[in-house]
TrEMBL record:
Keywords: Chlorophyll biosynthesis, Membrane, Plastid, Transmembrane, Transmembrane helix. GO terms for molecular function: chlorophyll synthetase activity. It is found in: Membrane. Gene3D superfamilies: UbiA prenyltransferase. GO terms for biological process: chlorophyll biosynthetic process. It is a multi-pass membrane protein. This is Bacteriochlorophyll a synthase. GO terms for cellular component: membrane. The gene is chlG. It holds the Pfam family UbiA. The keyword Transferase does not apply. It comes from the Eukaryota. CDD domains: PT_UbiA_chlorophyll (cd13958).
Amino acid sequence: MMNKGSPLETGSNARQLLGMKGASETKNIWKLRIQLMKPVTWIPLIWGVICGAAASGQFNWSFQSVLASIACMIMSGPLLAGYTQTINDYYDREIDAINEPYRPIPSQYVSLTQVRQQIWVLLLGGLIIAYGLDVYANHSTPVLFILALIGSFISFIYSAPPLKLKQNGWLGNYALGASYIALPWWAGQALFGQLTLATSLLTLGYSLAGLGIAVVNDFKSVEGDKVLDLKSLPVVLGIESASWISAGMINLFQLGIVIVLILIDQHFAAVLLLLLIIPQVVFQDIWLLRQPMLFDVQYQGSAQPFLVLGMLVTALAIGHSPLVHSM
């Protein structure tokens, strides 16, 4: 029996608050609301805003700029990513009843009415902040508001029928990767500078590496996906093939970014990014390619920090590249 206050129980409680697999159950409504928002998923969006600000080449450490960047992070992470995760749980309640019955909705500790209320509060809060940031940045076109609307729409059709993009392994995973990498990057860059075609295409390329990360997230839902006939890549191609595709996408498109950095004369950044890819390959061999179903969490915890550091290296290089900003 698990002792109260034991490391195992503490870890299970922490997973509950973060919205991670293997969480403990709780009846506390505020803990349930936080779990629906999956705080662990906010990190890449917050980081994406930081990368976008760095890529703008115009961020400064004034009080106003820091406050604006924090507001943009809150919009992208707790509010709109929280909206995305809550609406995903709402439409995935049948799958979660199979894969993760301890989650708030299948455990029946939170009502569907409360979940719908949370979805609207998070969505409207994110859109209001986005518009306020456009006013702050003196945008003639409300760029951040438009980006927030696009991201919210993608989140809806990713989870909700009849489109339910997540039913298609390739399309759904790319939509997820773009939402978590490109959109917050664009928001951060538009807040402090100007979006260019070159940086937009580059971040969409980086989102293909994000597709590989999204495949890893599908491993935990394989059983439920099979029962409900959802065509995730691990279901369609098998666990082993999907793990190799995941690793290949992550590595291939980061190497593509290395080539781009060389072409824009950012050679030091290219070398740094290449060095950051190496440990990712090592952790893929240790965790992802051998037993992805068992070690998916360990892989993400060990390899993804190097991926996101590579994103920042790339963003800083773009911010200092006159070639990119002239395109």
